[in-house]
């Protein structure tokens, strides 16, 4: 009963909080799609984000209360997925800035990687814990330091020699031994003073987010090292997950198996914007590393085109995708992380000739205007749904570094498509 009442109040709450939100863009920041303004928008957001960084801890710490998840939580460990996804977007921006004569962002990433000792986090089979390997690959491509890849190759070789056979069915281990569940055991492990939950299927890619965190790293490492085994593993595992989470009727992706039979109040499936955003952004990143002659490349392109075609019709008039893609009225909030990931995929697809520019450029323009519109005068990137596994309320003040990553990924692709 309480949840039903809260759902009915969400539109009112959204309007209430939006009236108290900070004014979005500074006077000098515009959503004009020209190289100068797009570059300036990315620089403004990047510079604000780095101002919050503590180089001694490798953590972003300079936040207002409640703006950011506790630095003692596992997700926000410097080698966890939150930071890993940030570095994916930051590396794209660093490459663009470097091409324009500013190597400072790459230098920051190089220093972060060195302070991490190029290590992944401890759950070596979990994509959340080795997604940080993308940072080391990007640093290696720039500076050619062999030590940057040693730990990543060691971990991936272990996985190749003893691959997980866990089911892709999403279930948590329960703490309460009396709880009715298929798994009953101690659910929390410790690492560096942080608590780590255990979900057996996460030894493989059983959730949508993992398709951004995992396969691009494997495929990129295959390209850098010439070891085809890394690519073959990623290709095999990707399709097992994609075929499980792919909804053949709506051409969208579920977040994980728990959502197959759940429905919104309007009868629609629960399709999470950031969840499907992780998938399409992950596909874009994978397509960077899949050879044109690979026999399955066409299959990747086909599923990419299908989901992008479907998502276009779900974009709202203000340029955003709502947290619940097929039930925008359920959580009628601007949500910038899912929107950014999806917009990046559209811009990438256009630039690569995979998506028709005439058809999809208006989608990108609306999304870019929306994303620039949540940048506050300081450069803080707002309206980012907090860490979750499904649609949830969002406030103007909410930020997370994976939202910044999505903005930078989109911006770098938008920049590429512009003539001037």
From TrEMBL:
Q: Where is the signal peptide?
A: 1-24
UniProt GO MF annotations: hydrolase activity
Q: Please provide the record's keywords in A-Z order.
A: Hydrolase, Signal
InterPro entries, per database record: 6-hairpin_glycosidase_sf (IPR008928), 6hp_glycosidase-like_sf (IPR012341), Glyco_hydro_88 (IPR010905), PolySaccharide_Degr_Enz (IPR052043)
Q: Name one Pfam family in it.
A: Glyco_hydro_88
Q: Name one GO biological process term.
A: carbohydrate metabolic process
Gene3D superfamilies, alphabetized:
1.50.10.10
Q: Does the keyword Cell wall biogenesis/degradation apply?
A: no
SUPFAM superfamilies referenced in this protein's UniProt entry, alphabetically: Six-hairpin glycosidases
Name the domain of life this protein comes from.
Answer: Bacteria
Q: What is this protein called?
A: Glycosyl hydrolase family 88
Lineage, top ranks = Bacteria, Pseudomonadati, Pseudomonadota, Gammaproteobacteria, Alteromonadales
């Amino acid at each position: 009963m309480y949840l039903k009442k809260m759902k009915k109040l969400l539109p009112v709450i959204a309007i209430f909080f939006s009236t108290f939100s900070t004014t979005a863009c500074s006077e000098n920041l515009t959503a004009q799609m020209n190289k100068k303004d797009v570059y300036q928008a990315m620089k403004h957001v990047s510079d604000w984000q780095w101002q919050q960084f503590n180089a001694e801890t490798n953590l972003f710490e300079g936040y207002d209360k409640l703006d950011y998840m506790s630095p003692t939580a596992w997700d926000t460990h410097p080698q966890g997925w939150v930071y890993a996804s940030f570095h994916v977007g930051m590396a794209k921006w660093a490459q663009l800035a470097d091409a324009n004569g500013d190597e400072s962002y790459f230098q920051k990433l190089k220093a972060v990687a060195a302070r991490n000792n190029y290590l992944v986090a401890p759950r070596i089979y979990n994509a959340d814990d080795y997604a940080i390997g993308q940072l080391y690959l990007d640093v290696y491509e720039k500076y050619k330091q062999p030590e940057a890849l040693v730990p990543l190759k060691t971990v991936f070789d272990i996985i190749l020699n003893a691959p997980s056979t866990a089911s892709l069915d999403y279930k948590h281990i329960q703490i309460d031994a009396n709880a009715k569940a298929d798994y009953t055991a101690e659910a929390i492990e410790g690492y560096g003073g942080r608590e780590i939950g255990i979900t057996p299927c996460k030894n493989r890619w059983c959730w949508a987010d993992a398709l951004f965190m995992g396969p691009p790293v494997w495929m990129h490492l295959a390209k850098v090292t010439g070891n085809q085994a890394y690519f073959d593993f990623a290709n095999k595992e990707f399709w097992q997950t994609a075929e499980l989470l792919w909804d053949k009727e709506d051409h969208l992706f579920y977040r994980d198996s728990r959502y197959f039979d759940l429905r919104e109040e309007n009868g629609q499936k629960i399709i999470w914007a950031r969840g499907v955003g992780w998938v399409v952004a992950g596909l874009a990143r994978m397509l960077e590393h899949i050879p044109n002659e690979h026999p399955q490349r066409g299959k990747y392109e086909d599923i990419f085109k299908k989901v992008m075609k479907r998502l276009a019709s779900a974009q709202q008039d203000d340029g955003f995708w709502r947290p619940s893609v097929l039930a925008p009225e359920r959580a009628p909030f601007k949500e910038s992380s899912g929107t950014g990931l999806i917009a990046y995929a559209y811009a990438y697809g256009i630039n690569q000739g995979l998506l028709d520019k005439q058809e999809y450029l208006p989608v990108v323009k609306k999304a870019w205007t929306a994303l620039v519109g949540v940048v506050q005068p300081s450069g803080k990137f707002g309206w980012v749904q907090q860490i979750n596994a499904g649609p949830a309320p969002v406030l103007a003040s909410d930020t997370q570094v994976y939202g910044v990553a999505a903005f930078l990924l989109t911006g770098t692709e938008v920049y590429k498509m512009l003539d001037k």
